[in-house]
Amino acid sequence: QKNLDLLAIERKWREKWKQLKNNPKNQENKKKFYILAMFPYPSGMLHMGHVRVYTISDTISRFRKMLGYEVIHPMGWDAFGLPAENAAIERGVHPVDWTVANIKAMKTQMEKILTDFDWDRELTTCNSDYYKWTQFLFLKLYKNGLAYQKEAVVNWDPIDQTVLANEQVDSEGHSWRSGAKVELRKLKQWFFKITDFAEPLLKDLDKLNKWPERVKQMQRHWIGKSEGAEFDFTVNSNRENKENRETTFLLKVFTSRPDTIFGVHYLALSTDHALSLKDFLPSDVYFKVLKLAEEMKQYPIEANDKEKFTKGINTGLYATHPITGETIPIYVASYVVSDYGTGAVMGVPAHDQRDWIFTIANRIVDEKDIKRVIKPYSAKFSEESEIYTSYGILSSNCGQYAGLTSENAINAIVNDAEKRGYGRSTVQYRLRDWLISRQRYWGAPIPMIHCPRCNVVPVPESELPVTLPTNISLTGRGGSPLKYVEDWLNSKCPKCHGPAKRDTDTMDTFVDSSWYFMRYIDPTNTLLPFSYEKASKYLPVDVYVGGVEHAILHLLYSRFFTKFLYKLETYESINEGYDEPFKQLVTQGMVHAKTFKDPLSGRFLKPEEVDLSDPNEPIQKSTGLAPEISFEKMSKSKYNGIDPEITIEKYGADATRLHILYKAPVSEILEWEDSSIVGMQRWILRVWRLVESIANFPQRSDDLILDMNIMNNEEKETYRIINFTIKELTTIFYETYSFNTAVSYLIKLTNHLTSISPNVNMSQPVYMYGVKCLVKMMAPMAPSLGEEFWEVLNKGRKIQTIFEESWPEIDNKGLIIEEVTCVVQIDGKMRFSLQVPSSILKDNSMVEKLIRKSNNGQKWIEENKIDKKIKRVIHANGGKIVNFVFEN
Ligand code: ANZ
Ligand code: ZN
């Protein structure tokens, strides 16, 4: 019996695979299968999360290859972004050098975990042969009216003189880098008009029946469709205009609750909206609004405190209620946001929380005089002061609509409004246009030129790429670094050929990743981002594996790009009309690792502070106490990080992969435990024993004769177990991806084969067939062992790789269980009978187990056993009669 040198086997097959890659097989006439794992940011180190995603995608990829698909399983690098720029600022390395070195390191690590990526499709988003096409797509969006510039409020760090992303501002509104209080500034920024696609992005979520419901729900919420109505309130401004005439204008409000229109006590404007009405505002009011607008810049965008709801200014203006004709005061309110609806709301204190708070704080009306216009369907208001925000029945103060339900009232009120012209039904989305400008160096330059005569002019497609200058000094201060690269900045206007300047912003890195999966299918195309033919053939991605943290932005942006490009007719998907990028989405869970805590202080303990000589009973060295154990997200502060490379060197990549797949279902948290990798190693060794046993068979047959007619019962049972396992595993690898269950089925099959192994009764064909199937089915998960075992099993035959062998087929006949009737006696009296598989009839203990587990068995034996003991069990008539004899 030979032992296995796992690391040597891995090395051997990694080399062989490289050679095989150099002689690619003919892929013609094969069906395509596109399996994609989210590409990583090249930080320089694979972490366990990466190992988990790539193990999952690799397993699926290898399985599909065995099924004869033309598999696309590409890998690349999401290489633009802040960390490279920060490394440059902190350590003086150029982002290019930093990125290239990191990619190299990570690629080696990916090979070490035995992944089978299509390296000939590799792409790196910071290479100009990639970002040339990102810029090309920017221009396409621009030419179709989907890229535009407007002023936007951004987080501005006054010390570092730079724009910060929301995630870079802490909860108190300070910059993560400089610690300065972040200001809100208005800057001209580029946007993609994703809102044009709001409806299809929402509606088509219903098509995605292989996406997790949770992710779709998050997208629905993000898009945030709200149906309601717009009402026009006439404003009579008493301020006289230059011609000394009274002026009136319409103020439009958006409401999701048209049924509450009889409860309006005031209208409220956002500060921006109010400032746009400058001509109508008394100057003291105008200055108050300016001050409030300034004050609100102090709030970080996410702040949600009560004060935000209560700040208000009475404008002194009045509007006329479109139905009742009442006079309604107009306020400016801090809680009204300028970029939602019309930037104006009708205030209904009795039925909206924020309106209530605002009304009381600004003493718009006495609490007791607040109009309640909606009654709950059943009970009355329990207390007079309570606000009621749900649907109900319209009260008597609602004119002709009194007594209607909210639903009916909404229809009636909006219909009447449309007839008379003072309102109309509308739809609002929470989704905002996508701000893609970054005042950063390490990103794709926005291919636009600013000309003093012609304004904003796109760079002609023929002049792409606009390459990033490399002679740059990065300090992290002063806004866009590209502003200071004179010879790059100064350019010529493509229209008038006069001197002009380049746009100095770069694109959000989410733009790069919104279309990378399309470039993979045609990565060397020099004429277009991808060809029509290839895109039509290979899109969409069949399975996309990645972290749930991308449930909203990345996936939404990718869907937007796909819909845009589909509309441009740059491809026709095989599934006609399928303008979605990813058919199936698999979101893998996080990897957690064990932590030890001092039970007294709660402090996390370093590894060297814990005595692990008995792994089941760790001891805190300094106190002798048992530390508190829990599984947590890996982090430096918890001393529980696990380095994949060390793990692989210790246990081998195959065992590591198996552990990852076995320990938890793909989308759940995986609790990392070295002891269970050891368990996987033990299983591997047991499979190896089976493989060896066949190598030792005196006579070996390659053409297995599996004729059920000549099998005895034991063989039939083995054959049934094999077919059952194939059936289960095939479903798992095809669609459910519950690899943890797959491994347990294979372990069970191993147990069975081991239990019959050198049994002379067992004819070789079924046994050999079982071992071969076992090896094939474990190969996608443990690829180098699969190869090695297959080679041993096929000594003398010319075989390149197991991944060109076909996946085992199910023999449905083999799945049928033949049953016989077994009569059960208690103390010699016949009590009940039971159907049992004929194959186990001779296995006395197995038959007894089945009998006792059955309903009758529970009743006659298990309950009886409580006060009596079973003396013995007699098997007679070839096992068909079983007599349980109890003690008296
Ligand atoms: C009157 C009303 C009565 C409202 C009531 C609600 C309840 P969703 O569902 O998110 O679309 N609103 C409209 N525009 C706003 C803005 N720019 N800033 C802040 N709030 C705004 O929310 C729609 C509701 O939010 C609208 O319906 C409006 O208040 C408010 F019992 O109008 B409602
Ligand atoms: Zn010009």
Describe this structure as you would to a colleague.
By secondary structure, this protein is of the alpha+beta class. Among the domains are: 135-193 and 433-509, no CATH class; 225-429, Isoleucyl-tRNA Synthetase, domain 2 (Alpha-Beta Complex); 698-815, Isoleucyl-tRNA Synthetase, Domain 1 (Orthogonal Bundle); 819-886, Ubiquitin-like (UB roll) (Roll). Strands 8, 9, 10, 11, 12, 13 and 16 form a seven-stranded mixed sheet that branches. A four-stranded parallel sheet has the order 2-1-24-25, covered by helices on one side. A hairpin with a 4-residue loop joins strand 33 and strand 34. Helix 3 (82-91) crosses helix 4, helix 20 (674-695) runs antiparallel to helix 23 (764-778) and helix 23 (764-778) runs antiparallel to helix 24 (783-793). The longest helix has 24 residues, at 713-736. It starts with 5 loop residues before the first helix and ends with a strand. It is found in: Cytoplasm; Mitochondrion matrix. It holds the Pfam family tRNA-synt_1g. Its EC number is 6.1.1.4.
Give the fraction of residues assigned to helices.
Answer: 25-40%
CATH superfamily of the domain at 225-429: Valyl/Leucyl/Isoleucyl-tRNA synthetase, editing domain
Question: What is the highest CATH level, the class of the domain at 225-429?
Answer: Alpha Beta
Ranges where pLDDT stays below 50 over 5 or more residues in a row are none
Largest sheet: 7 strands, mixed
Query: Which hetero ligands occur in this complex?
Result: ligand ANZ, zinc ion
- Quick one: overall form? globular
Strand content: 15-25%
Structural class: alpha+beta
- Average predicted confidence as pLDDT: 90
CATH topology of the domain at 225-429: Isoleucyl-tRNA Synthetase, domain 2
* Individual helix count: 26
Report the radius of gyration as a whole number of Å. Answer: 35 Å
Domain Methionyl/Valyl/Leucyl/Isoleucyl-tRNA synthetase anticodon-binding: 722-839
Subcellular location: Cytoplasm; Mitochondrion matrix
GO molecular function: aminoacyl-tRNA deacylase activity; ATP binding; leucine-tRNA ligase activity
Protein name: leucine--tRNA ligase
